[in-house]
Design goal:
Number of strands: 8
Shape: globular
Number of helices: 10
Low-confidence stretches: none
Order of helices and strands: HEEEEHHEHEHHHHHEEH
């Protein structure tokens, strides 16, 4: 049953009131975007070399000749024996469409994960992805930029230690989905990270991590416009594993 049934006039009045709130929300979003772009650029002084599908590449080479690099860190650690985090995988499913548009706006979009490159290539083929998928395995990069935690760091964060010690049922299911013990699996950080390249130097400009709404599948934003809220289900599914 619908939450409320009304006349067209009642709908229009309610819609007009909502439009005011949406305009306020949009204006706040514009100001937040401006503030995000005003963050200081921090020079990346350490040399990082990554494994890619095309061999070894430096951070600067990942830009593919553009001046901006936006990367999503998919939760797929070296201890994951089954595959990447299903939630991160859902977000990865929606990257290939925007890539061509971002490329024409001087932005290269890629993904990082800490699993070895052979596993990333196999998973990418399984999911049908086209974006560059780069392994940070064996590098200090994910720890230097907060994309992953060392075992010691994970134990020092009360919230992480608490869910490892007494995990909810859905998180135990998640551990089975990725094939990792929670003390290993939860050390990966789902996050976006941005860099700029100018005058031969690379700069770190921005990082955002879950549970920020930006670190969520794009279809969740579409669901915000649907008449019914999605089920309150913390578990995510890979597109080839839905139970129906």
């Amino acid at each position: 049953m619908p939450a409320m049934v009304g006349t067209r006039e009642e709908w229009q009045a309610a819609r007009d009131e909502l439009a005011k709130r949406e305009a306020e929300h949009a204006e706040l979003g514009r100001k937040v975007t401006e503030q995000r772009r005003e963050l200081p650029w921090v020079p990346v002084e350490k040399e990082y070399v990554f494994d890619t599908e095309d061999g070894k590449k430096t951070l600067a080479e990942l830009f593919e000749g553009r001046s901006q690099l936006l990367a999503y860190n998919i939760m797929y650690g070296p201890d994951y024996e089954v595959g990447a985090c299903p939630g991160c995988t859902s977000l990865g499913d929606e990257f290939d469409g925007p890539r061509v548009h971002l490329a024409h706006q001087d932005v290269t979009l890629i993904c990082f994960s800490r699993a070895p490159i052979d596993r990333l290539i196999a998973y990418k083929q399984r999911m049908g992805w086209q974006f560059p998928y780069v392994s940070t395995y064996g590098t200090e990069f994910p720890f230097d930029f907060g994309l992953a935690l060392t075992p010691e760091q994970a134990q020092e964060i009360p919230e992480v230690k608490a869910v490892i010690d007494t995990p909810p049922e859905w998180l135990e299911d998640w551990g089975r989905q990725v094939g990792a013990k929670l003390e290993d699996g939860l050390r990966e950080g789902p996050s976006f990270i941005a860099f700029a390249r100018e005058n031969g130097s690379v700069y770190h400009t921005y990082t955002v991590m879950a549970p920020d709404p930006f670190v969520a599948p794009y279809h969740s934003f579409l669901q915000q416009r649907t008449p019914k809220a999605p089920p309150d289900e913390p578990r995510a599914w890979r597109k080839d594993e839905y139970p129906d």
